[in-house]
Amino acid sequence: MGSGQSAAVADTSYYDLLGVEPTVSSAELQKAYKRRALRLHPDKGGDPDEFKRMKDAYDVLLNPDKRAAYDRYGPIMVGVMNGEAPTLDVIAAMFDKMTVAERARVVSIAVLVACFVLASPLMLALRWDGASAEPWPLAFLPLWLLEAGAACGLLLIPAPRPEDPADELDAEAQAVHERLRSLKLEGVACALVSAVTQALLAAKLGGSFGGSWVAVFCPPMLLECCWLARGGCRAGRAWAEWVAARPQARLPGFLAEHFAWGAARLAAWALVAARAAGAWRGSWLFCLVPLLLCEGLRSWLPPARRAASVGSQVRLRGLSQRELNGREGTFVGVNESGRVVVRLRAGEAGGSEEGQRAWRDVGVKPENVENLEEAAAGRCLWLRWLPWLLLGALKLDGWRTSAFMLFLPVFVPVCCLTCAFSCGICIINGELVKQMDPAQQGAREGGDGHAAESTVPYDLMTEPAAQP
Fold this sequence. Notes:
The protein is built from 21 helices and six strands. By secondary structure, the protein is mainly alpha-helical.
């Protein structure tokens, strides 16, 4: 192999299996494959494993896209081209090989996407403030395109299928299939109802729709009624699963988890429709009362504490060993006795005997574990929407401020995410990606001089502490 030719590709092992140079043409590659196949075929006395490796290499090099990916990244990219999920090594190689022009192209695409997302809020703010005389439907157009794209993306998500069409899906795959189908149904229904509501709203504001405001907000109210009816039909099975996962479950907590938000949204939509139609006079802030009451009710009732995923952060609570209540750790799994195994954070271990126990995995009852990531996600989502709703209600009440203030909860996160993504694309390299590997992080933490962590779990045979 010439050194100048080999330098053009990241790896030449596939070319070596066929006995050709990296600059070989497709016609020459086919001829080389026929010569090697005649010599390595098992029927001719060749090694079956070597023949298979040569055949796999030929299949990759014969495909122009796969060959280009192999020439640039090496064999690690072949699995991704065949549909496998990219590993950290593949992502690290992609960042190492990414040129300045390619990084600039990715950043430009991210900025264009952000501008398209912000186009509708920007046009709505200008139209609301009277700074623009464009038709209302034009202001909603980017939002309709986003919703259509989201709905199409949901429909294109592939469902799990068995390798053999004659086989049936196992229980886990069947559950994933059912959940995916439900997600598609809910997503498409929400996108469709949102688009219809926006179209009616634009027509009403533009004067081309002569119906009442109640008719404008009928689609979301009907959708909420459908969700509540659907939840009612599944209430029996949902209650059985709820009790099985939470032996001390109570009916108020079940109702708050499964029906409170739907009922609160329905009440809020009804109040908005009635206020817009002039059925009652008062502040638009009153329309938010059902949502605020629902959030307060969910905060007052015992938390749902859904099952955490492996690696998520959890907190221990309700234990009779009060020194362990409030301790945070990592969810490891469920042991044979049905107890949740939690690995307490090593930074909280002390020199005492009780502190040393914190280095070990502990097994507790499911109701003694609170999923911190789910609670934080719920709080972030609520804080994300609450300012928007409050500003919108104040603006409708006559508060003299620009409509741009109303859309700040949209502008700020999108701009921050775009800036963070662009900076990450510009500075991240392969070494930084490899440092994200949990195995390497564990190896680094294990060699920093601390005591080794014991992986032998023990059960806390305790009952929930009595409430004072």
